[in-house]
Amino acid sequence: MNPNEIDVARREIGELARQILDGELSYIEGARSIWHLGREANLSEMDADLFKFLAIDSETDALPIGAERTLWNREALERLQPEIEHAETWAKKAGQTACENLVKRFGGSPTLYSAEIITLWRPVGPQELELIRQSGMRAFPPRLPEQPIFYPVLTEEYAIRIARDWNVPASGSGFVTRFAVLRDYLSRFEVQDAGGRSHQEYWIPAEHLDAFNAAIVGEIEVVASFP
Fold it and tell me: Which helix (DSSP H) or strand (DSSP E) does residue 186 occupy?
């Protein structure tokens, strides 16, 4: 799947999340669509927001929702309606924050749309995370003299693998951060293949890190930790 297809799927997820929040789509029906789009959007099954919709889908998959209702007879639907309404209330409690997060990540805002940003991930150790926290979760710390390149990666799976398999042995713990960067800024750098399509990253020279930090939209989030 190429980056354009991934962006399209992520924008679809952001739009579905917006529709759910605006009451245009039920939480249960929206959860099913978002969960199934997750793979096309190149999101990890362990993605904290996506996982909420897996839980909703799993708990409500026996209920007739959306177009599926046309296959059921009226009496059966009437008998199930209280259960459906109860499940929708539960799904809203379970999924509202995840919807809000997905709109921020992929659905944009009135002044900044998802087409203008790219979501990246970076695995970090405890010392780097502490420095990020000292910045108010707004910036990555300067590189050390022996670190001429800053490496954000394009998929959560790749970041998880590094945090778990490299940061934990090296530092005792590893963390995965997620953040959005202005597409216009990133366009000056090429995506680098570090060992296959699942191992893609940007190589940002250390002297450009201040400008990179200035192009970050919103806060840097911690989305996974190991062990």
Answer: helix 183-186
For the chain, how are helix, strand and coil distributed in percent, rounded to 5?
55, 15, 30
Number of Cβ atoms within 10 Å of the Cβ of 207: 10
Residues 6 or more apart whose Cβ sits within 8 Å of residue 149: 143, 203, 204, 205, 206
What is the four-CA torsion angle of 40, 37, 177, 134, rounded to 10 degrees?
140
Q: List the one residue out of 81, 79, 35 whose CA is nearest residue 58.
A: 35
Tell me the per-residue pLDDT of 126-174, one tens digit each, with 9 for 90 and over.
999 999 999 989 899 999 999 999 999 999 999 999 999 999 999 999 9
Backbone phi and psi for residue 202, each to the nearest 5 degrees, phi listed first: -100, 145
Residue 153 per-residue DSSP state? B
Question: Beta-carbon neighbour count of residue 21 at 10 Å?
Answer: 19
Q: Give residue for tokens 């990253």.
A: 201
Predicted structure pTM score? 0.54
Q: Which residues contact 53 (CB under 8 A, 6 or more apart)?
A: 30, 31, 32, 34, 35, 38, 95, 98
SS3 135: coil
Phi, psi of 187 (to 5 degrees): -65, -15
